[in-house]
Amino acid sequence: MSKILWDGSCYYINHTSDEFNFGNRRENIILCQLRNKASNLNAHLLKDYLTDDPHCSHCGYEFKWNVHYFLECPKYSQQRDILSQQFCDIGVPLQINFILNGSSEYSHNLKCKIISYVHNYIKSSRRFWHFLQHFFSYFFFLFFQRVGLIDLY
Predict the structure, then answer these.
(1) Are 114 and 23 in contact (CB under 8 A)?
(2) Which of 11, 58, 62, 110 could pair with 106 in a Cys bridge, judged by C-beta atoms 3.0 to 4.6 Å apart?
């Protein structure tokens, strides 16, 4: 559903579907990063000049963006088999477009199921686990600094 929003300085159109707000926030953020080609996959990092290596850190294959992570990498074959079966059970083809964007032809409940299955894939693959590790490292750093166990000056 598109909405025209005012952010205080300009109007913009929000094209976000309500389904993308369904489920766990962490997986929603990762899925959004994947959709926008702004995740920590090497192909996305290469695009933003944050790495020199476009190859998969698990199998060495040259990335084809999100397709490799969701549909090709042998590291995630077990998770992909589960995702494939779940998509098959609800009659949705296992294609990158449906994985990332869903489809307007499906009902709200079916779109939520698709997103739930994709979230489970992301979570069980543990590919983006570093996100949580960095968060907790930063949190504990701030905590120890606050209680005086770390002095930066």
Answers:
(1) no
(2) 110
* pLDDT tens by residue, 30-68: 998 899 888 888 888 888 888 888 888 888 888 768 999
Q: Are 22 and 112 in contact (CB under 8 A)?
A: yes
Q: What is the pLDDT of residues 121-135, one digit of tens each?
A: 999 998 887 655 555
Buried b / exposed e over 109-136, threshold 16 CB at 10 Å, is ebbbbbbbbbbbbbbebebbeeeeeeee
Q: Where are the beta strands (DSSP E) in the chain?
A: 3-6, 11-14
CA distance 145 to 137: 12
pTM, 2 dp: 0.74
